[in-house]
């Protein structure tokens, strides 16, 4: 291989793979990436065996095509500090020379034939969605997904595609709270129904990649993988095996006490009160009565806090306990001026809704106080 490449182009492409090329791994080759150069098309490819990304890279000059496997972090740092175009030269799989201006490097390389291959997707179902719609759905569910939960299926976002309704549903839950967002979508899969659990780590990376896209995104769901086509980039991740909870059964249907309040004022009240409170439980007590909500927090070592806000409510008084962080994350993910809190009693899950929008629902388990 003997090529010349812009430092900005190399830096940009390697920036996309930094979160996937493993920095601390028991398999050394996974901290590397593959640069595959031909006269027709050149690509960079990285994987951590759970996720993979492949995208084209523009090479300024190709004197000799070839394939090399190089350390992702170090080449990224070289590209960042380089003073100009970078020349990459290698005639074997052990060492690669790099030059930029007066700087030169000799970098240890690995055999690209030993790098994990891009998985093939058989019997996949392809769908198309607008990037802003997918981003919005991910933002509204990722905060509820579990982290290192022993119930492994909870450590991801459920993609539920319902062909008969031409609808896609994304769901996140950690067992204490749940968020569900619905969206209509053009699809031609008949009455089929597809469920795929996308790992939380992959969703976080996907959000970052989507942010740079303005064209429709195609995604393909296979038995064990899901692949997203983002412009010329390909992002692939393994799916989580297991059965996701029946989210429709978790959403309360009989909560007959409805509280309407200003979303921003509710957020400010919660933040002021939650300054005082036990760090681990973050519990706040909420008293709801006609026209008024009072919020309390107590910490035996720090003291107490109390605040309140006006609400629209005419039912019987009720007192509940919540994890303040869970409430804040749910309400902060909403966009309407007013939010609705639907209650039944002190132990039944609470339902949070945007005023005028039935396509986004948040369920919170109350805490004992």
Question: Could you walk me through the main structural features you see in this protein, from its secondary elements to its overall organization?
Answer:
- The protein folds into three domains: about 1-115, DNA Polymerase III, Chain A, domain 2 (Roll), CATH 3.10.150; about 125-250, Roll (DNA Polymerase III, Chain A, domain 2), CATH 3.10.150; about 250-365, DNA Polymerase III, subunit A, domain 2 (DNA Polymerase III, Chain A, domain 2, Roll).
- It is elongated.
- The protein has helices at about 5-15, 70-80, 130-140, 200-210, 245-250, 265-275, 325-330; strands at about 1-5, 30-35, 45, 50-55, 60-65, 65-70, 85-90, 95-100, 105-110, 125-130, 155-160, 165-175, 175-185, 195-200, 215-220, 225-230, 235-240, 255-260, 285-290, 290-300, 305-310, 320-325, 340-345, 350-355, 355-365.
- It has about 375 residues and is α+β, with helices and mostly antiparallel strands.
- Strand 7 (about 85-90) and strand 8 form a beta hairpin.
- It is built from seven helices and 25 strands.
- The mean pLDDT is about 95.
- The strands form four sheets. The chain has an eight-stranded antiparallel beta sheet with strand order 6-2-3-4-17-16-15-10. Strands 14-11-12-13-25-24-23-18 form an eight-stranded antiparallel beta sheet.
- The protein is about 20% helix and about 40% strand.
């Amino acid at each position: 291989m003997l090529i010349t490449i812009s430092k900005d182009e190399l830096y940009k492409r390697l920036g996309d793979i930094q979160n996937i090329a493993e920095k601390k791994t028991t398999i050394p080759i996974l901290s590397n990436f593959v640069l595959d150069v031909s006269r027709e098309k050149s690509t960079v490819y990285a994987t951590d065996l759970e996720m993979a990304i492949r995208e084209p890279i523009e090479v300024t000059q190709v004197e000799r095509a070839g394939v090399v496997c190089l350390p992702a972090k170090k080449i990224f740092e070289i590209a960042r500090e380089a003073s100009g175009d970078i020349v990459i030269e290698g005639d074997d799989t052990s060492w690669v020379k790099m030059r930029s201006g007066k700087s030169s490097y000799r970098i240890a390389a690995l055999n690209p034939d030993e790098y994990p291959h891009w998985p093939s997707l058989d019997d996949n179902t392809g769908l198309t969605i607008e990037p802003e719609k997918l981003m919005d759905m991910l933002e509204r569910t990722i905060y509820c997904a579990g982290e290192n939960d022993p119930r492994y299926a909870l450590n991801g976002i459920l993609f539920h595609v319902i062909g008969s309704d031409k609808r896609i549903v994304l769901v996140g839950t950690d067992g204490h709270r749940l968020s569900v967002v619905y969206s209509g979508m053009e699809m031609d899969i008949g009455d089929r129904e597809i469920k795929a659990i996308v790992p939380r780590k992959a969703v976080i990376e996907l959000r970052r990649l989507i942010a740079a896209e303005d064209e429709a995104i195609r995604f393909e769901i296979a038995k064990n993988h899901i692949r997203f086509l983002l412009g010329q980039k390909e992002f692939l991740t393994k799916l989580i095996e297991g059965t996701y909870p029946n989210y429709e059964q978790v959403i309360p249907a009989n909560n007959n006490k409805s509280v309407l309040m200003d979303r921003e004022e509710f957020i400010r009240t919660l933040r002021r009160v939650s300054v005082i409170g036990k760090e681990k439980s973050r519990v706040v007590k909420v008293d709801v009565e006609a026209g008024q909500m009072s919020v309390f927090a107590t910490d035996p070592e720090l003291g107490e806090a109390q605040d309140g806000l006006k609400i629209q409510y005419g039912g019987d008084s009720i007192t509940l306990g919540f994890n303040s962080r869970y409430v804040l994350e749910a309400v902060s993910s909403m966009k309407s001026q007013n939010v609705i809190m639907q209650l039944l009693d002190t132990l039944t899950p609470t339902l949070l809704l945007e005023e005028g929008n039935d396509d986004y629902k948040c369920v919170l388990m109350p805490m004992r106080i």
